[in-house]
Amino acid sequence: MNKRFGILTAGGDCPGLNATIRAIVKTAHEKYHMEAIGFQHGYKGILDRDYRVLTPESVSGILTVGGTILGTSREKVFKNEEGDNRDKTAIIREVYDELDLDCLVVLGGNGSNKKAYQLQEAVGLNVIGLPKTIDNDIVGTEQCFGFSSAVAIATEAIDRIHTTAHSHNRIMIIELMGHHAGWLALYAGVAGGGDVILMPEIPYDIDHVARAINKRAEQGKEFSIVVVAEGALSKEEAAMKKSKRKEYLLNSPSAGYRVARAIEKATGLESRITVLGYVQRGGTPNAWDRILSTKMGSYAADMLHAEDYGRMVALIDGRVGSVDLAVVADKVRYVEEDDRILMAARSIGTCLGDE
Ligand code: F6P
């Protein structure tokens, strides 16, 4: 055996994690004769010394399986719960040395890739990151695996809601995930023909939303589809001081419910709300995510071989490459005003809540 590396999945799960693990382990083993050690439940598995050897045989048959065979958690590496006096970063370094690892491969979202970078800086681990999240909000990559599947699931849900909206002449509000970014709502909203799409990047004015819905009613279309990202904010909410907004949101229903309430008040039309929730994260990856995961995973193994550490695998100009983790850490990729899909949505008359 040549190199030996650790691998973990951290943060929220998503379709494509297993496909990526499979590609990394198979490529590393078959092409480079490296050994993979899989940690259970993210960074927690390192702290608990909960690991096992992963072989091409043990990752066989997982390409299409949802979730992650390694389990995941949102373990805080640089923070301790009350009463926990462990020096977690020191333990991680200890386990890394005990196992004689050459690198730690982290399949994670923003938080987990940031932790990988911080571990490199704090205790000198060699790390490689991979971008997973249905939120698609990681800086440095055009796409994260998991996103395409989530868009497909959300689009199918919108399609189904469309027919019942039409039958009952109702305003249907569909709340989608995305954390503080609007990628999922924008893509699924456009793919599902949403009449209104509300996302965190564009604080909405309920009068504009009501006007768009009423205009459709005047044209004889008495139903409307309103796609709301979970992080969407009204103009008033966005204008609040951060601390006040945090408290207000903690004590308020989720974005979809707030929008539904405001629409009913402004239009008097009957509204119904669907919060799609974890359906968006579960189940088998679609074909695109299987391909992206396989490309990114095998590329990560090539990076291991080349000792190209401190970087995250990324999709750049449609090709798989990598970016420095320093560029990725502590940032969020938001939808920009000049995004082609956002521009297209505006062009076809979709209401984005700001006009
Ligand atoms: O995986 C990202 C994400 O799906 C976000 O869109 C969402 O806000 C968050 O995870 C919720 O996940 P959890 O309940 O597991 O913290």
Query: Strand portion, in percent?
Result: 15-25%
- Helical run tally: 13
What's the architecture of the largest domain in CATH terms? 3-Layer(aba) Sandwich
Bound molecules: 6-O-phosphono-beta-D-fructofuranose
Instruction: Report the CATH C-level class of the largest domain.
Output: Alpha Beta
The overall number of domains is 2
Distance from N terminus to C terminus (CA atoms, Å) equals 61 Å
Q: Regions with pLDDT < 50 over 5+ consecutive residues?
A: none
What's the overall average pLDDT, rounded? 97
The tally of beta strands, per DSSP, is: 11
Radius of gyration: 22 Å
Helix content: 40-55%
Molecular shape = elongated
Order of helices and strands: EHEHEHEHEHEHEHEHHHEHEEHH
Short description:
It is built from 13 helices and 11 strands. The chain has 355 residues and is of the alpha/beta class.
Structural account:
The chain has 355 residues and is an alpha/beta fold. It folds into two domains: 4-145 and 285-328, Rossmann fold; 149-282, Phosphofructokinase domain (Rossmann fold, 3-Layer(aba) Sandwich). The chain contains 13 helices and eleven strands. Strand 1, helix 1 and strand 2 (35-39) form a beta-alpha-beta unit. The protein binds 6-O-phosphono-beta-D-fructofuranose. Residues 12, 133-135, 177-179, 230, 281 line the site of 6-O-phosphono-beta-D-fructofuranose (F6P).
